[in-house]
Design brief:
By secondary structure, the protein is an alpha/beta fold. The chain has a domain of 275 residues. Helices cover 25% and strands 12% of the residues. The chain is built from 13 helices and 10 strands. It has a 5-stranded parallel β-sheet. Helix 8 runs parallel beside helix 9. It is globular and about 80 Å long. Keywords: Membrane, Transmembrane, Transmembrane helix.
Length: 452
């Protein structure tokens, strides 16, 4: 029997400055059942350790581990990609870009993407998540020993896209902006309205681009693309590349705030071997933070009128907003449409046709009737004929894998293993050999390796 299979017994407590066997390690071993094997005790202790501490922990505790002993552990997907490359575990695979744009593309501008797309308002930058926009120019810091194939930089693979769905979203965002621009006062644009755009990633980016004249976008995409990614983040990134020149332009004066989400962030996930879990949850300011910024009304944008409630990970947020006496409302992006009765003027630009609330120029101002956050427009608008269930929306607490269902919890739950990937670790050295989803790695020939 190898020493790894012998029952674990604590012989000495190490709790001195400078000794690697610090409190977190001692606690992991002490919490292990008395009859646990040495291997299981070590793995229990590793559960408290992040990527940086894995090698140091094993160097102290894995006495008796041979170099070919391995274990599968879960690590945060984004951390693994930043360390080993965007296509970690699928180095020789790539991604495809449906709807590739034919317009000229300045690839060198990708290095500026995280700067070009950050909020103009310095106070809003605390809520900006630049992770996705940093990926094209990121350089791996390590090579996975079990998966050493060279990884093509994402910046060399990326192509801008422009799709019909993005075009509709852009025009819808422009229509919403026109409503706020029409309500401008002598003191400038209203900033007491905050918008949360919760559409599929490429459409959310396009909606924000269309609305950029009146709204300062705060992007919250906390993941990277991957060839086997559950979330098709490469398409969101490709949409951002298409609109990057627009976002890079300076818009004079302060604007209202628009938080931009990818609705696919909670996509279903089932197969470690075939999928890479690059999912993430939304990160929004607290109710108090919005209130302190002068926000009194929050509008959540969903795809269609069939979407009558917010995404699961927004439930705790919107309930908290309402408890803080913020008006919270829901609106479908599909409520904006072109007016079929209008004819295109001879000198009209490519922005034709304009979209209107309710699909008619005469009904556009009815937005302020459905969402009475200002004086009724003049002349009086015509009520849209299309159903608009969002105007009667009221946030209601509900328990989901991503929401607590209780007002006093303070922290929204996240399912175990969410946004993580299985990796193969050599117990004798602490080296991460590669992603367990890649079956061709050399660890498969090792004793105890992953061969599932």
């Amino acid at each position: 029997m190898s020493r790894l299979d012998e029952p674990f017994e604590r012989a000495e407590v190490l709790d001195k400055p400078g000794i690697v066997g610090a409190r977190w390690w001692h606690k992991g071993l002490a919490d292990a059942p008395k009859d646990a094997s040495r291997r299981n005790a070590i793995l229990a202790a590793l559960g408290a350790v992040g990527l940086v501490g894995v090698a140091a922990a094993i160097a102290v505790a894995a006495d008796g581990c041979s170099d070919d002993e391995t274990a599968v552990q879960r690590k945060r997907a984004l951390d693994m990609q930043r360390t080993f490359g965007w296509s970690f575990g699928a180095a020789q695979e790539s991604v495809t870009f449906d709807g590739e744009s034919k317009k000229p593309f300045d690839r060198a501008a990708l290095a500026r993407m995280s700067t070009d797309l950050r909020p103009a308002d310095e106070g809003a930058r605390a809520y900006y998540v630049p992770a996705l926009f940093e990926s094209p120019s990121a350089v791996p810091t390590l090579v996975a020993e079990g998966d050493p194939a060279p990884i093509t930089p994402l910046g060399d693979v990326l192509r801008p896209i422009f799709t019909p769905a993005m075009d509709r979203a852009y025009r819808s965002g422009k229509a919403l902006a026109s409503l706020l621009l029409a309500a401008r006062t002598d003191s400038g644009l209203r900033r007491d309205i905050a918008v949360i755009v919760d559409l599929d990633g490429p459409e959310s980016v396009a909606f924000a681009a269309g609305a950029a004249e009146a709204f300062d976008p705060v992007f919250t995409f906390d993941n990277w693309p991957h060839p086997r990614g559950v979330v098709k983040a490469h398409l969101t990134l490709a949409a951002a590349a298409y609109y990057q020149p627009l976002f890079a332009r300076s818009v004079p004066g302060p604007r209202a705030t628009m938080f931009v989400l990818d609705r696919q962030r909670l996509s279903p996930y089932s197969d470690d071997a075939a999928q890479f879990d690059n999912r993430h949850v939304a990160r929004l300011p607290s109710a108090d933070a919005l209130w302190d910024r002068g926000v009194r009304h929050v509008l959540v944008i969903v795809p269609t009128e069939r979407d009558t409630t917010e995404s699961d990970d927004l439930n705790d947020d919107v309930v908290a907003f309402r408890s803080r006496r913020l008006d919270v409302a829901l609106m479908a992006a599909s409520v904006f449409a072109a007016d079929a009765a209008e004819s295109k003027p001879a000198n009209e630009s490519e922005d034709w046709p304009p979209y209107y609330y309710g699909g008619r120029a005469a009904s556009h101002g009815w937005f302020w009737m459905d969402y009475p956050w200002g004086p009724p427009p003049r002349p009086a608008p015509v009520e849209p004929s299309a159903p608009r269930p969002g105007k009667s929306y009221v946030p209601t607490q509900r328990a989901t894998p991503f929401s607590s269902g209780t007002a006093s919890s303070g922290v929204s739950p996240i399912p175990d293993g969410f946004g993580t990937v299985p990796v193969v670790v050599a117990l004798g050295t602490g080296v991460i050999l590669g992603a367990a989803l890649s079956r061709s790695g050399s660890w498969n020939r090792a004793s105890g390796g992953y061969g599932g």
